[in-house]
Amino acid sequence: MRSIQADIEHWTIDESYDTIVAIGLLMFLRHETALKLLTGIQEHVKFGGRAIVNVLIEGTTYLGMFDPDNYCLFRRNELEEQFDGWTILESRTQTFPAPESTRKDFSTIIAEKPSQKN
Question: What's the Cα-to-Cα distance from 16 to each of 11, 22, 80, rounded to whole Å?
Fold first, then answer.
């Protein structure tokens, strides 16, 4: 196992991995940057490997943790759409209470990249 510390907004994935996990990360980037990183994750998961991704989705009312100009709430089914063609092993949405009578709505996906076609 290897870990990397990087400025995620300017970093690109440069190797392929059996599994890439992005839990509570993409939501802290602008939507365009988040989608670029998500594409990088998909491109760098090895064939037959897995991606595990968790994001906040629209409906979330707790926004106090964000820079008002630098965050992304995904659409409710956006992760499933982005992983079209992959095998979805798990997909769920969950809601949790948050400070000041607000809530956090999450979408989580575990997807397996198809084996390389011959």
Answer: 15, 15, 22
What the chain holds in terms of domains, given with CATH numbers, is 17-112 (3.40.50.150)
Is residue 2 pLDDT above 80, yes or no?
Answer: no
CB 103 within 8 A of CB 95: yes
In contact, 38 and 53? CB cutoff 8 Å: yes
Dist. CA 65–CA 95, nearest whole Å: 17
Q: Over 53-65, what HEC string results? A: EEEEECCCCCCCC
Q: How far apart are CA 91 and CA 109, in angstroms?
A: 4
- Which range has the worst mean pLDDT, 3-17, 27-41, 77-91? 3-17
Q: With the C-alpha atoms ordered 34, 68, 3, 53, is the resulting torsion angle positive or negative?
A: negative
For residue 80, give every residue at least 6 positions away whose Cβ sits within 8 Å of its Cβ, in sequence order, or none: 88, 91, 109
Alpha-helical regions (H) of the chain? 31-44, 78-82
